[in-house]
Amino acid sequence: MRAPAAATERRRRIVDRVMTGLTLGAILVAVLPLASVLGYVVLQGASALNWAFFTHLPAPVGEAGGGMANAMAGTLTLIGLAACVGVPVGVLGGLFLAEAGGGPWGWWIRFTADVLNGIPSIVIGVFVYTLVVVPMKRFSALAGGLALGIIMIPLVMRTTEEMVRLVPLAIREASLALGIPWWVTTLRITLRTATAGVITGVMLAVARIGGETAPLLFTAFNNQFWQSRLDQPIASLTVQLYNYAIAPYDDWHRQAWAGALVLMAITLILNVAARVAGRQRVAGGR
Amino acid sequence: MSFHFRTGSRAGALLPPPAPYRPRRWADGAFRSLLTAFGLSVILLVAWIAVDLVGAALPAIRRFGPAFLWTSRWDPVHGIFGALPFVYGTVASSILALAIGVPISLGVAIFLAEISPGRASVVLSFMVELLAAIPSVILGLWGIFVLAPWVRTSVEPALSAAFGWLPLFRGPAYGIGLLAAGLVLGIMVIPIISSVSRDVLRAVPQEQREAMYALGATRWEVIRHAVLPYGRAGIIGAVILGFGRAFGETMAVTMVIGNRPQIVPSLFQPAYTIAAALANEFSEATSDLHLSALVEMALVLFAVSLLINAAARWLVSRVMRA
Predict the structure, then answer these.
(1) ipTM above 0.85, yes or no
(2) CB < 8 Å from A in window 11-50 of B
(3) Which of A31, A33, A154, B237 could, after both became Cys, cross-link B316 (CB 3.0–4.6 A)?
(4) Min CA distance, B238 vs chain A (Å)?
(5) In chain B, where the domains are located
(6) Does B131 contact chain A (CB < 8 Å)?
(7) Which pLDDT tens digit goes with each residue over B121-165?
(8) What is the pTM of this model?
């Protein structure tokens, strides 16, 4: 027997409401862990954070206090080394994709960049280990920087491509019409117009590699002291945080939360800044 | 740089063909080659990674053959290596992550693409993407001190009370274990699955929806019968990408899965993944064979991530191109 039309109508409307409600629920469930992580990191981290954290070396087990000054310097060093690899390769490769990447090679490079982006970062660490650490016979900042640099390449490349593509064709044509060669036009007109966008992409890539731990475990390794030589093991915020988190000491757990707060703050600032800069650029382009 | 303009010095003479422009074309060609070289370096790099990993894994491949993947004795002391417990832990935790993450991600994608008004959608999209920006070591820290205790005291007792007749939910509640790893990974796959699916749903032509609305359908019926089927291939691609993300995730998993190489039915028990084994054992591998076996596991991760990305890109591009 068929249900009366009115009842069917009502059932359909109820199903519609329920499903809409479920999708809203999904959003809440997805945002909940974000709120919880941020909340705990801020609460636990703020109570553990003090000035010594930024200026002192790690304290030995059982001794309260100490900081992660060397680890923060280490992370900055590693990011600098990574940028030496990731920025030139990424930007020039991205320029190729945007300006000359229409053919089958462009397709393959785009595809491979996406694949490289999807390769687990620990595998990159293994690659750099066999490539650099084994011949050098020791862990080093150079190896860690190279691993992070490789991870950076596809990120910078794809954002550079997108940003350069946004530059209006008319600007290129105007430059070429003045008799300026293509290569000068590309570097000094096209790329310069897209500079803000490219920097945004680099910032996002830095935010990503700054939070990487896995590829550093057996490339840069760790160090409890200051280290200025690049061919020696170097500390990083993330590896230090990991070691402290899995250790059984309460003092170290507090340090780990403080480190998490610093790392989280840097990551969020970079992400939000990149987002805001990106929106301004798009709005300005319209 | 210099421009070699030839001005007509002799009045009345025709200008010669613009030979002086040649150096510029040469420079353009060189610059183009330079850009091409940097672009191609990515392909070279991935090929290099493959060759390098195969080379370093060769001793283990020669010694154990394909049985490496389905034997389960991992014994560095006696030099016998079988990766099955790690493969099992990796696959099980990834599947668990999808079971938790996919329904939530689809709900998020549908809400963002079909239901929410523009401005709210922008803010919520950003928040979900921020989830992806949390460094995984911080998620692991949160997993150890917040999630795992909650799983031990609330989730596992509740599950075993309700579904205790299933071997999956039997045994003592540890907190740290496969279930905690699945939860953390589930959180980590939400951003990628939901953002790719959202883009796929947005790429569905408006006519699909209008035709369905014209038949008097409710919004849910439009989504269910006109939008989702159209984007099916792309959504499957998004889920595969999520699997790839979960498969190779290292830090957060290492910190909450318990790191015990065993294959047991209970989700409450500790397990071990390939990536976690690499993180824990690589820098203190005792013998060359041990190291080679670990590299072979990295090679497995590499090969699987290659396949996953190829398949997913193909599926997503099928929808987005249309």
Answers:
(1) yes
(2) 24, 27-28, 30-32, 34-36, 38-43, 45-46, 48-49
(3) B237
(4) 13
(5) 86-321
(6) yes
(7) 888 888 888 899 999 999 999 999 999 999 999 999 999 989 988
(8) 0.90
